[in-house]
TrEMBL record:
Residues 32-282 form the Solute-binding protein family 3/N-terminal domain. Coiled coil: none annotated. This is Amino acid ABC transporter substrate-binding protein, PAAT family. Residues 1-21 form the signal peptide. Belongs to the bacterial solute-binding protein 3 family. PANTHER family: ABC TRANSPORTER GLUTAMINE-BINDING PROTEIN GLNH, AMINO ACID ABC TRANSPORTER PERMEASE. One of its GO terms (biological process) is amino acid transport. One of its GO terms (cellular component) is outer membrane-bounded periplasmic space. Keywords: Signal, Transport. CDD domains: PBP2_GltI_DEBP.
Amino acid sequence: MKLSPLVCLPLLALLTLPLSAQTLERVRAGNNLTLGYVDHLQPFSSGPETQPVGYAIELCQRIADRLKREQALPQLQLRYRMVERERVSEALRSGEVDLLCSPLVATLERRREVSFSVPIYPSGRGVAVRSEASPALLQVLEGQVKRTVPQWRASINRGLARGTFVVIAGSTAERWVREQLRLFGVVSTLVPVQSFAEGTALLREGKADAFFGDRVVLQNQVAASGAGDQVRVLDRLFDLESAALSMARGDEDLRLLVDSELSLIYRSGEIEPLYRRYFGEPSEQVLLLFKAYALP
């Protein structure tokens, strides 16, 4: 049977839509929502696909509940899929996962590939070092070199020179460390790794001097690995970044739903017990940030 042009037009329009724009349509048609996550990223996301846990996982579960209500899908099937860090953009773009339930720092470069929710966590860049780290290195990393002191650049260079520093490959920490080493003219070795477990292992084995990354994740990784007697996380925060959930680029309908639920959680104060469970008592500054994150 030959279809008339009028019948073909709606079908043609649907087929020519980018896959990313069809997330909610795909969820309705298949009655399932696939949540992706990066494993071993405590306290945000970790565990088997049958039952992952973490702060970001719980936020995504709340978003899934909202989707059930708004889209009238009471029997919606929730699936989890573990995604390698380097495949996050590809998994979202292809529709392999509908929403990434692990925090990602929103950068202009990443926004070329994916869309981001409102922030879910005020991330802080920290550093882990070996317990027997040299005093010169600790002086630099703890910010004890005063810029008013003559030859302060030389002191920084001396503390970092010929060191081996670990970062997560492709992270904002990698870019930041490279820039700092270039700025101070430091000759050292930078080792990008794929996981926090891999980076912590290099520290334990004495193959690295420092590991830069999200301070909370570093703390959890050191504790989980039992390396507390060999590795410690310094108190200093080098920078603050806003981490968010991510989805396929241009998927504004899904983004609106996600931001609506997150904003509700922040405005209602429900974020406080959730934050407390994973990170401890939230400071006044953190609570103010969540109020600022919430959209009216």
